[in-house]
Amino acid sequence: MNPVNVQLLSPALHKQIFPVEPKRVSDLATRQEYAKEHLQLQNIWGKSTDKIPDVSLKLPLMTGADLEEHFLRIGIEQSGSYLQKAKYLAGMELPKKPKKWSRVSGWTRYDAASGKGVKVEHPMEDVLIFDVETAVAVGPQAMMATAVSNDAWYSWTSPYLFGESENPNHLIPMGRTGRERIIVGHNVGYDRARILEEYNPSHSKLGFLDTMSLHIAVSGLCSQQRPAWMSEIKRRNAGKVTQTGGSALGADAAVDGVLHSMDDVGSNSFFDVSALNSLKDVVKFHCNIDMDKSTRDILVDGELADVKDNFDQLMQYCATDVEMTHNVYKSLWPKFHENCPHPVSFAGMLQMGNSILTVNERWEEYLANSVAKHKELEDMLDVKLQELAENARALVGKDEDWQKDPWLSQLDWLVNPRQRKLKGQPKWYKDAYDTKAGKLKISTRSRIAPLLLRLKWQDHPIHYLQEHGWCFKIPIARADEAGNTKMVSMDEDYFYYKIPHKDGEKANCGNPIAKNYLHYFEEGVLSSEYDAAREALELNAKSAYWISSRERILGQYVVWDTDVKDMGLSKRPHGKNGIILPQMVTMGTVTRRAVEKTWLTASNAKANRIGSELKSMIQAPEGYKIVGADVDSEELWISSIIGDAQFGFHGATALGWMTLQGSKSEGTDLHSKTAHILGISRDKAKVFNYARIYGAGAKYATSLLMQYNQDLDLEEAKQKAANLYLSTKGEKQRSVRNPFKRAFWHGGTESYMFNALEDIALCKEPRTPILGCAITDALKPKYAGTQFLTSRINWVVQSSAVDYLHMLLVSMSHLIERYDIDARFMLSVHDEVRYLSSEKDQHRTALALQIANLWTRALFSYKLGIHNLPQAVGFFSAVDVDHVLRKEPNMHCLTPSNPTKIAEGKSYSINETISQLKQRPDASTKDNLLGPEKATLAMTLPAEAIHDEMRSLQQLLPESRMCDLDFLKAQMLHDYKPQKLESKRGGRSTEVKYSQKSKSANNDSQNMEEQVGNDEDHSLYIKYDDGTMPRSSVRVIQAKLPTTKMRQPKDDPSSLYIPAGVLDALVMPDPAPSSSQQRSFKKPVPNPTKINWISV
Q1: Distance, CA of 887 to chain centre
Q2: Quick one: DSSP state of residue 1071?
Q3: Average pLDDT, the chain
Q4: Membrane-spanning residues where (predicted)?
């Protein structure tokens, strides 16, 4: 146990991972006392904890003297020659493009000097830039491709294009040379899916580098910057603004807010250092070349004959894309390597680009079942709606009946006596009738569907108002039933209240039957009194997932073993094997998370959702198992340990302790605490916790509370959110006139964590604390000022989680190579990893995954200055060994489209895995359960070169994350007050008072980063000793923000009041001249905000 009763690894394991004891911290005893005091203040100290059984395991020897050297060595090893080839490619000059392209199917190589083409089996060189073109009229299959090396250009033509084959399903061969080769492309995951050798469980030794990913990691935009960026670029293109970011008159307010706040960041803003992700945008940004992409229209809109007729033009277009990709790569590679300097980041990115998914004939059955079931339910729903419409139509001529009906009275019952078709029918019926089909066509998206279904919200009829969207109405006499809901309209008989929208009060509900409202139906908030209507809603709910996902699912590019000669899998007499290559963007967001449209967003199977068994259709081939695990509370642990690092040991902060030792049954874990504060379920509390850690503010929490509880009014929700943020984030000491010369959070369970995250996010050059990866230029302070703090905090956590993933993948790859384990990387979905393993090596793969996780967690601790590791996080709680891909191995994945249970898999704890390996007939030696090892490159790299590289990487990050004792103490206090400071102004002594007017922990908006300094109403007062206040000294900040004046409080004319928000930008000036002179406040940033004197 450590000083705060966190159970650590057993001494035997500890010595294997932390062989070198750290220097003892001289003030450790004080830090320990402060941690106990903090935990007592948060009512955590002394809570009972459960002891976890120790693990007895001899680990593989690390390849370096310590964890840091070990990971550097295996990173270099797993980067292999790929990294050297990537560096070579950045300086490579291309040969001249051919003027004429061969129409012979397959590969043609063009002589660099003569341009003459020669047919070849595949490109010969180890470094290629590559691009594939498909034709929409044919399908996803490749029709043509070009590639270039340092020596030659290549072209590939599909045999289908010129009639040599009637089958369009042809893959592009790259050959199995046995050498490590690298292929570069823009969105290269799309091109990889057309390469023959990738459709095989054995590794092709092809490494794929994506220039789109490199661009996003270096110059990508976060989602909150994108709208402003696009508006600004449109204005620049229209010649309305200068290249330095000045805004034009009449710009919309949202964009102006961003533009104006850029004035203090120098001549360049994030607009100047970022771009969108398409090849055209990236080429323009990095190379200042305008690409003409109009030729692509032939491939999108034309027929196959058009592709043939324009073959040379299309080949030239494809080759130009290759050429431009190389230009972009040459510009990007040095920047990327500077941003992500650790070889583990490079090797991890390559691993992510080699995902593979295996399927069998069940895949086709799944597609057919889902389509058929959806059609069946769609037809049933159509019949229900038609039936309801016909029942309503029967009221034509019975005006009194439909007029007193709260739903049907909203329909247009006007009958046009002159209409020939549907004579005598009301307008609403005529509008819904499809004359060509000869029947009514009413979808759930139509305006009349909710009325025919007679929907109720909280048992009150719904009503559509043009200005407010869908509402519900309550008789005036029963208005108390609305609770605290805000009324938006009224008439003689009813009060009207808006149906809530996920985007807040100002947004209107456009369709109460839409996907976002399904949970209200399931919870009984949205209902109907008629069985037919309830059935219709149930049918709609069952189809919702399939409707939103079917296009992506049906569009999956599957290659079957019937289409290729050798897929590397045993042929099945009564079935077939298939492979899907997820078209991954390996660094698809500014946090460097991977992006993929289908598999990275796939939901888990739900009993009432057609097609939601999608993931379980990924099934291991005969003789294989899918082995994997979820990293337990990954991002929560990363956040908490960054906070703990200020003390120097695990669990020192309330958040850290709850993460490591908190108990669900005792109510001492983070999610239970939040659930108690807000009065909600533990599952719902998780949403609030992760949103807060990612930087979302109290406004978001308020909105979420009102979604979860319809009876809460706005003020009550605000108060609950404020209480949550006061308890967790704490209060913010906004003044920088304190001993620490900084703003900081204090008094909450998470104050230490948020201060540590903000330290990283707001530093001059933000980098992840483990592998030292830099933030994208668009979010760097020198270009973004104080904007986008939410995105920057989110970046610290999620980008560190990407470091975690890359370390885990590289460790696994090293162990697979070192112990000759028959397994390969399959897929990662953020905190989940899955490997395809032979059945004979399933438990060795599971143990390797446990060891890889242990090494990864340990390096996180080590790099944050904590040279030990809690037992609770050292190993995965369980590793799944399964025959299908799913969240849990005991899920049966029953859905409307899959009525048959899927057989269960198994889960093994670390001790169960050890037991399995010890029981094997061919059990390895007791010394190493992974079996005999072989020497790998990591073990033989020269020490001098490794140490030089380590020193270079260490210079990017601070030596210690521990803070001084005074600041450690200040962060724990609920009622921290800065000391009063004296200053001289105009020859008179002044007293500076810092007032914390509001105890509200956080009044920030959902876009917290756009108003740093406005989270709380903390204000500064300046009072003159002689009781006077020269009115000529009132100042105005001129930063192209709305003018904000300092003013004198009415009740105290001898004081000067500086509002919150202005205060955050200011530091008191040096000894002042007289009040009649001009002077500037100094900002703690390189470009001070300009302050002018005015007369009032």
Answers
A1: 19
A2: S
A3: 85
A4: none
What does each C-alpha distance from 715 to 36, 458, 699, 705, 711 come to in angstroms?
36, 21, 11, 11, 12
Q: Please tell me the predicted confidence (pLDDT) of residue 268.
A: 66
When pLDDT is cut at 50, 70 and 90, the band that residue 650 belongs to is very high
Q: Does the pLDDT at position 262 exceed 90?
A: no
Complete DSSP assignment for 724-788: HHHHHT-EEE--S-STT-S-EEESSTTHHHHHHHHHHHTSSS-B-TTT-PBPPGGGSHHHHTT--
Residue bearing tokens 């399933």:
842
CB atoms near residue 552 (< 10 Å): 15
For residue 1049, tell me if it sits in a domain.
yes
Note the pLDDT tens digit of each residue in 380-436. Answer: 888 889 999 999 999 998 988 999 999 999 999 998 888 778 888 999 999 999 888
Domain span at 186? 91-221+274-339
Question: Which residues in 573-611 are b (16+ Cβ under 10 Å) and which e?
Answer: eeebbbbbbbbbbbbbbbbbbbbbebbbebeebbeebbb
Give 999-1047 as a DSSP string.
--S----SSGGGGTT-SS-EEEEEEETTS---GGG-EEE-SSSPP-B-B
pLDDT above 90 covers a percentage of the chain that reads 61
Longest CA pairwise span in the chain (Å)? 99
In our burial notation (b when 16+ CB lie closer than 10 A, e otherwise), range 450-469 reads: bbbbbbbbbebbbbbeeebb
Sequence-distant (6+) residues with CB within 8 A of 952 are 341
Domain boundary among 313, 339, 365: 339
Contacts for 292 with CB less than 8 Å, ≥ 6 apart: none
278-281: long-range contacts, CB 8 A cutoff, minimum separation 24:
279/186, 279/187, 279/211, 279/212, 279/321, 279/324, 279/325, 279/328
pLDDT of the residue at 146: 98
CB 95 within 8 Å of CB 113: no
Locate 19 and state its tokens.
Answer: 């062989």
Q: What pLDDT does residue 261 have? A: 46
Tokens of 356: 């593979």
Q: Is 131 a catalytic residue?
A: yes
pTM of the model: 0.85
Cα–Cα distance for residue pair 637/655, rounded to 1 Å: 9
DSSP annotation of 481 reads: G
The mean pLDDT of 115-120, rounded to a whole number, is 93
Written as one letter, the residue type at 1036 is V
The domain total for the chain is: 2
Confidence of residue 229 (pLDDT cuts 50, 70, 90): confident
Residue 1052 CB neighbour total at 10 angstroms: 13
Q: At residue 1046, what are phi and psi to the nearest 5 degrees?
A: -70, 145
Task: Please give the residue that has the higher pLDDT: either 773 or 228.
Answer: 773
DSSP code of residue 1067? -
**Considering only CA atoms, which of 311, 320, 309, 280 is closest in space to residue 144?**
311
CB 520 within 8 A of CB 526: yes
d(CA 322, CA 98): 13
Query: Considering the domain boundaries, does residue 109 fall inside one?
Result: yes
Q: Is residue 813 part of a domain?
A: no
- Residue 31 inside a domain? The answer is no
- Element spanning 464, H or E: strand 460-465
- Confidence check: pLDDT of 292 > 60: yes
CA nearest to 66, candidates 934, 943, 956: 943
> Pick the catalytic residue: 126, 131, 191, 1004?
131
Cα 82 from Cα 347, distance rounded (Å): 9
Q: What is the CATH number of the domain that holds 332?
A: 3.30.420.390
Where is pLDDT greater, at 985 or 486?
486
Boundary of a domain, candidates 339, 354, 371: 339
User: Alpha-carbon distance 342 to 772, whole Å?
Assistant: 7
Whose tokens are 């007017």? That residue is 997
